[in-house]
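Lab notebook: predicted structure, single chain.

Context: the supervisor wants predicted structures on file for every construct in the current expression panel, including those that have not yet been purified. This is the next one on the list. No modifications to the sequence; it matches the entry in the shared construct table.
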Amino acid sequence: MLLVGLLLIAASPAIGALPGPGGILVFAAGFAITLKFSDWAKRRYARFKRRHPNKGHWVDWSLRRKSALRREQVRKAQKAGEEPVGD
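Prediction complete. Output recorded below exactly as produced.
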């Protein structure tokens, strides 16, 4: 599956040359698959998010990551002065 994700990422520029948003969707699918199956990619992504929190937030939102939803709930609870709600 990791190889499939990397192939999708590599193919996204060629597909992006075609009319429409296909390249973005193919890249997003490849990126999601790569993050799911590669510990190295997860570490690199975590480092990227520490350096660029706003960009990491948008990537989490676009991938609809469960961890991003939990962090958002904790952030809202802390802002309201409440205890965070656990899953």
